Structure formats: C-alpha cells, structure tokens
Amino acid sequence: MLTLHHLGRSQSERIVWLCEELGLDYELKRYERRKDNRLAPPEYKALHPMGTAPIITDGDLVLGESGAIAEYLIETHGNGRLAVKRGQPGFTDYLYWFHFANGTLQPVVLQVRYLERADPSEKNAVLQAAKERFNLVFSTVEKRLGEAPYLAGKELTAADIMIVFSLTTMRLFKPYDLSPWPNILAYLQRIGARPAYQRAMQKADPDMPPVLEAKPPV
Amino acid sequence: MLTLHHLGRSQSERIVWLCEELGLDYELKRYERRKDNRLAPPEYKALHPMGTAPIITDGDLVLGESGAIAEYLIETHGNGRLAVKRGQPGFTDYLYWFHFANGTLQPVVLQVRYLERADPSEKNAVLQAAKERFNLVFSTVEKRLGEAPYLAGKELTAADIMIVFSLTTMRLFKPYDLSPWPNILAYLQRIGARPAYQRAMQKADPDMPPVLEAKPPV
C-alpha cells in the first residue's frame, strides 16, 4: 500500500498534488507541525534518517526527496504520465525546470529567508547579493511563463508540480510579493483552477486557503 | 556537436567527469573565474539566462542545471549507462541520492557558508541550526557509504557524479574538515582512483589537485 506522509504546510504538498493528478490509490497520513517551533514532530522525523518532508512508504520502501519520490511514483504507479521522455516535445524544458525547482529556486528563497533572519540590515552584502540572485531567478521563471502556459510547454507536467510550492505555500515562511511577475501570477491562477490541485490542497491543509495571490499571507 | 562550457572550479566539473565516464565525444570550453570576485566572467553568463555552471550546447540546444544535463546526456548520448532504471537493483537508492545531491547536500553547505559570511558569531542561532543540519546531512551520507561502496550500490552511477563536487572542490569555497566521516573519506579515495575522474579533473582544472583529503585546502 502506498502511503504518503504529509507534514502540514510543507513541500510534501507536491506529492499529494502529484497523486491527485495521477489519480493514484494512496493513503494520506497527515502530521501537524510542532506549535513551539513549527518544525516536524518527532513521529515524522522518526520515519526517515533525514526527517524532511515529503516521505512515502510503499511496502518495505521508505523514500524521501521530492524529486526522487516524483520520479518513483511516475515510473512505478503512474505509467510514465506527467513526465516528458526523450523524443517528445518539451523534453529538455521538462528536465531543466524539474531540476531547477530544488536545484535553484527553492535554495535561493531559503537563502534570503535565513540571511534575513541572521541579519536583515541593508549593509549585509551577502543578503543583498542573495536578493539580486532571487530577482534573476524569478525573472527567468517569469520569462518562461510568457512563452508557454506550463514550464515544459502546453501541458502540466511534474516540473510544474515541483516548482509551485516555492511560489505559494513557501510564502507562509518567507513572505514575498509576486506583483512584479504577472506571468507567474497568471500561471498560479491556472494551477489553482485545476480540480486535482484543489482536491490536493483540501486534503493536505484543509484549514489553509491556497496561497495564489500576489500579496503573501499576513 | 556537444560542447561543455566548464567554469573553472565549479559544479560543471561534474559534467566533465560524466562525459569521461561515458566516453563521450565532446568539446570542452574552459572559462576562468574573474580575479576580482571569483564569479563567472561575462562571456560565461551570456551563454544562458541564469548564467550558472554547468552549461552545455548541443546543436541548437542550450541547457543548464547539473541534474538536467546529467539526465539529458545519459539518455541521448550515453545509451542509459550510469543511470538505474525501474526493476534494476538500487533503483530507489539511485533516485534518492541523485536528488539529494542538489536538493539537500549542496544547499546546506551553501547555507552554512553564506551565514558564516553574514555573521560567523556563535550567538547566530540561524547559523547554529544550519550547522546542526549540516552534521545530520553528513552523518546520513556517512551511514550510506558504510552500507555500500557507491551511493546506489556496488557500482558507480550518476548519483555519485552529482554528489562528489560538494565533498571535494566545494571545500575551496566553504572549507570544512571531513575527518569525522571515515566512510566518506574512503569513498573519495575510491573516486580519486578512477581513471575517468583523473582525466576529468586534469582537463577541468589542470592547476588544481583534486580535493580528496580530510583537511580542506588552505
């Protein structure tokens, strides 16, 4: 039995969404964050050596890392759907944006967050450089979403499922305004209109409205 | 013609190594870092919107992101070698460690580096939390390399090629000592003994000895 261990308001929402888009038969186990520090509770950390969300179990298998879980589910339970294979249109765009999500976008958002927490002053040159990089990253996504409705082209793929968390729920942790990026905002409206995304967000975090507007939640 | 644009002392060494392990026919174009700030020179940044290493060109294609390039080369030029497919032993280990490299390991090394540059004092609670996470990440790699000689099992795969940069050349930028992790050190000696790794490092950075010892370069 495939079980998805979802930590509330975390990257594991990607996998809930993926399961809903693929129409998989899965059990969702939901875990609340600790009230004192917003981290994963001990029973979540005990599931896997790294203790980070997402985690799935499938028979004897315990697997972490969003990218690994997405590839695993698509290959073993999803009949290859939502991936783009060699020879299909959008193959290299798919590869680029799938890996860009956790290789470039999410790290730069986290860097700005951590550096602001360490020292938010304007004389912090490391923070200023990180903010410049943040703007370059978002400009690059903005440009891509002016060329195509989804990252790999005309249809939603797992590359979109990998990237959307950093543009939405991540803004609970690092509030930032998407007003400078109209293509990204229009993209989030397309995502928010998808029945599978709506079902996923309702199951993943029933008390949280999806974070799809320009202004971050207060 | 496949051209690999290698920025000296950067993550693009992964792709030089991958090309050598696969025995590909490729052209290596090497770019020196700027002397004033150690960043990529303007002609490197001009190759791709993000301007980050690695970048390949292949006919009309311009592709960035290590993970995307590795998957692309293995699929289109490497006949699937160095990847582990569904049904083969080590499939889920391969997926996990391949994605762990840039999804978890490299970001935590960068976080510690940036936070130390912003404020290295011991009262910096954000830095202390990042250091704890750094130790958890390295302990997890150490444990894995006590179970198997390579990350996916008995043989070298692209998961190893993704991870080794953060354990070696990255220590020029964020010096850290690997003495607490004997399995990782023994692994680096196995890597350093590979003819393809030796050829790659000689081509990528002929003036730099591979960073394989416990102590970081001074």
Automatic annotation (TrEMBL), chains A, B:
One of the Pfam families matching this protein, by short name: GST_C
Record EC number: 2.5.1.18
UniProt keyword Cell inner membrane present: no
Domain GST C-terminal intervals: 87-210
Domain GST N-terminal: 1-81
Single annotated GO MF: peroxidase activity
EC supergroup of this enzyme: transferase
GO cellular component, one term: cytoplasm
Assigned keywords, A-Z: Transferase
Catalytic reaction equation(s): RX + glutathione = an S-substituted glutathione + a halide anion + H(+)
InterPro entries cross-referenced by the UniProt entry: Glutathione-S-Trfase_C-like, Glutathione-S-Trfase_C_sf, Glutathione_S-Trfase, Glutathione_S-Trfase_N, GST_C, Thioredoxin-like_sf
Full protein name: glutathione transferase
Organism: Cystobacter fuscus (strain ATCC 25194 / DSM 2262 / NBRC 100088 / M29)
